[in-house]
Amino acid sequence: MAKIKYYYDTETCRYERVKTSNFDIFLNAVGILFLCSIFGFGFSLIYDRYFPSAEEQRLANQVKVYQEALDKLEGEMSSIDEMMTVLQERDNDIYRVVLGAEPIAMEVRRAGTGGSKNLFEMLENGAVQEESIVTVEQKLKNLKRQMFIQTQSYDEVAKRALEKEDMLASMPAIQPVENKKMKRLASGYGMRIHPIYKVKKMHRGIDFSAKKGTPIYATGNGKVVKARKSNRGYGWHITIDHKYGYQTLYAHMSKFDVKVGEVVKRGQKIGEIGNTGSSTAPHLHYEVRYKKRAVNPIKYFTKDISPEQYAILLERASRETQSLGYSE
Q1: What residues contact 317, with CB distance under 8 A and at least 6 apart?
Q2: Which end of the chain, N or C, is more open, meaning fewer C-beta atoms within 10 Å of its C-beta?
C-alpha cells in the first residue's frame, strides 16, 4: 500500500495531503526503466565476457582442436627441417668438399623459409582455417624446395663421385718400371748436369736406369696420343693423355707395345727401355705434365711404395747427379 505524503501549509497552519500528478508518475516510471536498462546492459556485458555462449564455446573448442593439430604438424615439420639442415651441412662440409664441388650457400638452400602464425591471432583477424592452411602449405612448399635442391646436389655429388673414381684411376700413381729395391732411380727432377754439355740444365723428368728390354708400364689409365720414333732428343717415346689435365711421357724406348689412339690401363705394359735419341745409357726418361707444364714425377708415386720407400726415392731424386739423357 502506497504511503500518503503530507506537507505543512503555513497559510492555513495545517498539514495538507500531497497530490501526485500524472506527469510525475511518468517521470518516475521513465527513470526506473532507464536505471533497469543500464543495470541490465552491464550485467549482459559481464555475462558475455565471463560466461561464453554455446556457439562461442563450440568455436573455442574447434580452435583448440585446430591449434593442437597445427602444433603437432609444426613439430613434425620442425623435425624434418632439422634433419634437412643436418643433411645440408653434411653435404656442404663433407661430400662436396671431398669431391671438389663448390658448396651451396645456406641462404640459397633455405630461402623463403618461415614459421606459421598462431591460430588465436588468426581468429582475431577472422581467418582461422584459411590462413592456417596457407601457412602450412607455404612451409611444406619451402621444405619441398629444399628437398629438390638437396636432390639436385646429391645428383651432382654422385656424378662427381664417379668422376673422382675415374680421376683417381687416371692420375699417374705408380713407378713406370719395376723398382722394388728403389735402386733404379738414377736422376731426379730439377737442375741436373747435362750428359753432353756438362753444364747444369733443367731436367723436367726423372731417369730410371735399367737394361735394354726392361718393361715400361703406364702409370695411370689413359689414351696414347703420341708414339714417335726419333733419332734425337727423346728418341723413341710415348705420350699418354690421362684426362683431367694430366699427361705422362716415356722416352728413350726401344720397343712400343701400344699404338696411337689405344686406351691403356694403369700397370699395362706399353713398351721397353732402350737407348734411343740423346741418351748416354739404357734408361727411361719419365715426365708428368699437368696442364701442359712439367711437374715433379716423384710426387705421383703413391700406389706401389711404402712411406719408407718413398723417403728413399726422395733422397735419391734430390742428388744432383748427371742425367742420362736430355729432351728435345
Answers
A1: 185, 188, 189, 206, 296, 298
A2: N
At 104 the pLDDT is 67
CA–CA separation, 137 vs 144, rounded Å?
10
Rounded-to-integer distance, Cα 299 and Cα 175, Å: 11
- The amino acid occupying position 168 is L
Residues 185-317: name the CATH superfamily: Glucose Permease (Domain IIA) (2.70.70.10)
286, 206, 193: which is closest to 239 by C-alpha?
286
pLDDT confidence of residue 200: 66
How many C-beta neighbours within 10 Å does residue 230 have? 14
What pTM, to 2 d.p., does this model score?
Answer: 0.55
User: Could you tell me the three cell numbers for 95?
Assistant: 661430400
Residue written as cell 726422395? 314
* DSSP E strand boundaries for 70-117: none
Domain ranges of the chain: 6-50, 54-170, 185-317
Residue for grid cell 732411380: 185
The answer for residues whose C-beta is within 8 angstroms of residue 121's C-beta and 6 or more apart is none
Instruction: Write out the H or E segment, with its range, that includes residue 263.
Output: strand 263-264
Q: In the structure grid, which three cell numbers stand for residue 164, read together?
A: 673422382
Q: pLDDT digits over 257-291, tens only? A: 999 999 999 999 999 999 998 888 899 999 999 99
* pLDDT per position as a tens digit, 217-266: 999 999 999 999 998 889 999 999 999 899 999 999 999 999 999 999 99
